[in-house]
Amino acid sequence: MTLLSLIQKTIPAAALLLLAATGSALAYDVSLKPFTDVSNGDWFQEEVYSLSAIGLIDGYPDATFQPDGMLTREAFLKLLVQSKSLDPAVPSGDAPADVEPSRWSYPYIAAAYERKWIDVLLDSRRALDPQRTITRGEVAAVAGRALLDAQPQEARERWMSQGWQEERERRKYADGDTIGEGLRPYAYYAVNRGIMEGDETGFHPQQPLTRKEAAAIFYRLIDAETAGAKLEHTGFYAIRSYPAIGRIPLLSQVTFGWSHLEYPSPGTARLNTEKTEYRIPSGWEEALGAAGSAKAGKELMVYYGDKNLKDFLKDEGAQNAFIDSLKAVLTDKKYGFSGVCMDLEGLLEPASAADYVQFLHRVKKSIPDYKLTVAVQPDYYYKGYDLKEIGGLADTVILMAYNFTHDESRLPSAPLPLVNDSVKRALALVPKEKLVLGISKQANQWVTAPDGGTDSFNPEIAEVEKRLGAPGVSQSMSYPYFLKRMAFQDERGSHEMYYEDTESIEKKLWLAKYYGLKGVSLWYMGNYTDSDWKLFE
To answer: Where is the SLH domain (predicted)?
Structure first.
């Protein structure tokens, strides 16, 4: 069996059964269980779980990864094609002589063959021998060839004429002469780019590639591909965010959480900027001035989450009244807003989808010179959002890929595998150039009392940070969640906490770059720590 679940048969994911907001059961078809043979301290742990989260690699039905297992040539090529986000669905028709179109790996091999990445593996008959175990030297050559092909012609020619020889002299591997002559220029390019490396005894080109080595190689390949990727950074300035006002220059967009939809009765609605936590605060001029000085976009967020939202979306009179009041605030020159972010949450029924799209069309038509951003929840059970239509009419779509919390199973807010799955589902309908990954800085805590009762809550970030430095607290990165896990005891009982810390936020940025998303959004700015903000400098 190879790294991938589809090589010979489909391995069902370790899905976790959860309760949706409707009260009905829902299974997330992603792996949310750790591998039993990948432990804390293993040098390949982060790489394995990162690639597992994005679905590039998989384990076995017995919950093992088998890190020392070997990889075939065809399995490696499938991983290579997938890691570079190539679509092998329509093969060119050309493939090595011994790979038939009926073979499971044919599309992937054909994609690599068409790009001449595997010429160095073919024998005199132009045959690949796809089931043959691939060696480290062969992997380095194929990976190096794929990387080199992405470079300008002048750079490729310079490398092939002298660059690889200089790299060979610099490395001086004791077994360098055992790297096949045709493999050397490309293998040394993989070494030069940091994709592969040797040790004090040599490069070991004849050794079979292990699954753990493959995970490390493909993680590095993805890093190499995304190294220059740029993300737009949107910060939600809301709910005690004034201490973060100095961070506005790090953002390309500031969304001010200063308003909400008020819908008290049929036919009546307005934009409320005066009451509750979503209001224009005193001293608003300073925050808007900071955004203007930073040349950041300035959006007004409109929030609503009451159960009668579906009724509002059928109430044309109320909508017209609301849109009039929204337009009055947006066009008020003293604020200088450049757009609006509609965050209307909780639409469960598919019947609401068309009504919401029609409402958004009305909003957009009324403010044609302002950008429209729409925040949406993952579509597992929020069926009232037509992502395809929303993605067509909005300038930006923010995917709030969090709040998966489930108390009974102690599932935290934003495990990386679920975030990834949410992104993939959204990308099937929303252009990546418009999709923004929402990140919520929060913690989930469960307390088990001595009598066995359990309570759960979301502690304040300042208290979590204080707890991190307290004695008696064990802490580690939790896999496959990619969230900081803390555990401790006190007079209340046993505590377990999952926290969106700097390291886990960085992994979500990596995810956004991998998919080529427009950017990320930060809910909300006041929660982010000094360490977090360094990621955006």
So the answer is: 31-94, 96-157, 170-232
Same domain flag for 167 and 268: no
CA distances from 34 to 59, 212, 465, 511 (A): 10, 15, 26, 19
For 126, left (φ over 0), alpha (ψ -120 to 50), or beta?
Answer: left
Threshold 0.90, pTM exceeds = yes
Within 330-388, strands assigned E span 339-344, 371-376
Q: Give 389-444 pLDDT, tens digit per residue.
A: 999 999 999 999 999 999 999 999 999 999 999 999 999 999 999 999 999 999 99
Considering the domain boundaries, does residue 214 fall inside one? Answer: yes
Which parts of 287-329 are beta strand (E)?
297-304
Domain that holds residue 148: 70-226
C-alpha angle 415-258-254 in degrees, rounded to nearest 5: 60
Check residue 91 and give its pLDDT.
61
Closest-CA residue to 106 (of 119, 89, 82, 85):
89
The verdict on residue 527 lying in a domain is yes
Identify whether residues 328 and 358 lie together within a single domain. Answer: yes
State whether the Cα torsion 158-161-166-168 is positive or negative: positive
Does residue 428 lie within any of the structural domains? yes
How far from 185 is each of 129, 193, 204, CA to CA, in Å?
23, 13, 16
Same domain, 60 and 147: no
CA distance 319 to 327: 12
My answer on whether 284 and 301 are in the same domain is: yes
Distances (CA, A) of 165 to 141, 154, 199, 205, 293: 14, 17, 19, 17, 51
In whole angstroms, give the CA distance from residue 264 to residue 398: 27
Q: Are residues 65 and 78 in the same domain?
A: no
Tens of pLDDT, residue by residue over 125-169, are 999 999 999 999 999 999 999 999 999 999 999 999 999 999 999
Q: Grade residue 228 by pLDDT with cuts at 50, 70 and 90.
A: confident
